[in-house]
Design a protein that fits this description.
It contains 11 helices and 12 strands. The protein is of the alpha/beta class. The protein folds into 2 domains: 160 residues, no CATH class; 132 residues, Isopropylmalate Dehydrogenase. Helix 5 runs parallel beside helix 6 and helix 9 runs antiparallel to helix 10. The model has no long low-confidence stretch (mean pLDDT 95).
């Protein structure tokens, strides 16, 4: 039985994580769940104000677990606040590939089809957090890019393409300006693609943003890969094209550990109101179930989520409905159970 450490997080995190766990329970998942605290809310209540959003007890549970699930957490944009939970855990467990599969839903984007996977290098780049103050009025941030980091991200992206029947990939760079760092990234993307027979093209980050707005269909059936900050931005853009950031699930994968999470933030303005869309968290939970060996349960939840979203009768307000978080989760659980019985 897989053991998973689950952090409910901040803002809407407890609501959507509880919704996800209820769906897994309703579907008969045997995953052993260990609940943990992490995030800014518990940090602000902590009189010691540790240098991390992750208490020692939580880190110990994370280390004992086979994988973890992170609810949305808030990263305070103030001097002296800790590094984000996600960045801390990506670097702690060397989770170098942040993967966001994105798919359109017919009810939300009629006539537009876009299915792609966004691969983001998650341990280097500007998110390394290497900054220096240069005098009172200037600061420098280091964009760290290594061949090893680029190679393993490119290999993971091309393996996904091959495994999902995708024949093409797009490497997103700004190599005309960042000649050395993006030069390494492009070289490794070309190598990895050639080894698996995947056609890869290079698109500069500014043009990629325009092309996704003007003609997103050209990227249907494509793996998109880039360095940390570039793909953080592009994957957000893609989420808008498929209907809502509330639909985008993700995983952070390393060679021996995985962290699952929704792609969206903690949305404190609607916390506790039952308005949060649980789809991204539920889909991330389905992926976690598949990772833990429960492929039937994960597949049933995926299909049920798609069914509920396209029917539109039991969905939250952000995608055109009036259901609460728990009502939408209940509809997904019911449809998934029906699928498993067939």
């Amino acid at each position: 039985m897989a053991r998973v450490a689950v952090m409910r997080g901040d803002g809407i995190g407890p609501e959507v994580v509880d919704a996800m766990l209820s769906v897994l329970r309703e579907c008969g998942s045997g995953i052993e769940v260990v609940m943990c605290e992490a995030g800014s809310e518990q940090w602000e209540k902590n009189s010691r104000r540790d240098a991390t959003y992750i208490p020692d007890a939580t880190m110990a549970e994370l280390e004992r677990a086979d994988a973890c699930f992170k609810g949305p957490t808030t990263t305070l944009p103030v001097p002296g606040a800790p590094r984000s939970v996600a960045v801390t855990l990506r670097q702690k467990f060397d989770l170098y590939a942040n993967i966001r599969p994105c798919s359109t839903y017919e009810r939300l984007t009629p006539g537009r089809r876009l299915e792609c996977a966004c691969f983001r290098e998650a341990t280097e780049g500007l998110y390394s957090g290497v900054e220096s103050q240069v005098g009172p009025d200037a600061a420098i941030a280091i964009r760290k890019v290594t061949r090893r980091g680029c190679a393993r991200l490119a290999d993971a992206a091309m393996a996904w393409a091959e495994g999902h029947g995708m024949k093409s990939a797009v490497a997103i760079t700004k190599r005309n300006i960042l000649k050395r760092t993006d030069g390494i990234f492009w070289e490794e993307a070309q190598r990895a693609a050639a080894e698996r027979g995947i056609k890869v093209s290079e698109v500069y980050i500014d043009n990629m943003a325009q092309q996704l707005v003007v003609a997103p269909g050209q990227f249907d059936g494509t793996v998109l890969l880039s360095t940390n900050l570039f793909m953080d931005i592009i994957s957000e853009l893609v989420s808008g094209l498929v209907g809502s950031i509330g639909l985008i699930h993700s995983a952070n994968m390393g060679d021996s550990y995985a962290m699952f999470e929704a792609a969206h933030g903690s949305a404190p303005d609607i916390a506790g109101q039952g308005r949060a869309n649980p789809a991204a968290t539920i889909l991330s939970g389905a992926w976690m179930a598949e990772h833990a060996g429960e492929a039937d349960i994960g597949g049933a939840i995926r299909g049920a989520t798609s069914l509920v979203i396209n029917e539109g009768r039991s969905v939250t307000a952000d995608i055109g409905g009036s259901a609460s978080t728990s009502q939408m989760a209940g509809a997904i659980a019911s449809a998934a159970r029906a699928s498993l019985r067939r």
